[in-house]
Amino acid sequence: MKNLKKIGCTLAVSLSTLASPVLAEYPERPVEFVVPWPPGDIEDTLTRMIATAVRNETGVPTSTVNIAGGGGLVGATHVFSQNPDGYTVGVFTANIISTHIIRGNASYDREAFEPLAGIIGYGQVLAASADAPFNNLAELAEYAQSNDVTLGVVGLNAPPALQTLKMAETLGFEFTSVSGYDEASCLLLFNKEVDVLLGGTTMRPCLVSGEAKGLASLATTRIPIYEDVATLEEQVPGIATPGWAGIFVRKDTPQEARDVISRIAREVVESDEAQELASRIGAVVQWVPANEAAAYADAYYDRVVNLLGN
Q1: Residue 13 — φ and ψ, nearest 5°?
Q2: pTM for this one?
Q3: Biggest alpha carbon distance in the chain?
């Protein structure tokens, strides 16, 4: 009888084990990283490094998909349309979780995305051709009083563009026209499509070669590779809202997925390769943990509200 009871208990435990669902470890299928900009800029390069590291460590296929358009809105909307399961990860610039929402352009709200980390501090530069008859913002403002000056920006609704327009207003002039582009190509200056161009890392070649010159940097401090270019804050205090980018997932994404992506991504961000990339192109690559990134995102949102006058 004792043996029968023992056998019965063993069988019951076995059946219970079989009946319980076995939770798969994350990731068990391909992970997609979405960059809402064209290939080649720092967020694209760094994202590809992270995606490769995830694939190498987990053995699961990964892809980096560039979905450009709408100042980042098209790519962000794609991420928002996916399930919050950690298999679609966005690397977003700050305007995606601020300006687009404030202006009512987004189909998502402030609660839709949560940062895993902040990873990039941008070195935006307002530049002109080397032969332009102005060298800083004061000289630009004086020149614009009696001459047409056209402006090109990446993302018409992005905070860097808004800061530039606010700068012009503060200094008492208006740009003749403002055009938005998905990429700040030096050719826009060389071909005289615009007189002044606001861009990030893609501006480096013509600035370093001397074919273009910086009028102001939209950063918290002077960018090391452009030490002679004064910041916007130095020239027109009280306007600067420095740009940044982070890794974002949908709200309600499982913690396990967050932990895996964060652990691997942090190793990449803090690697010598990533830091060399940052110094080479004039940006800051730094791991800002989720809680700090979330607090900064909230503060940034409030600064943009003030910038827009909402």
Answers
A1: -65, -40
A2: 0.71
A3: 106
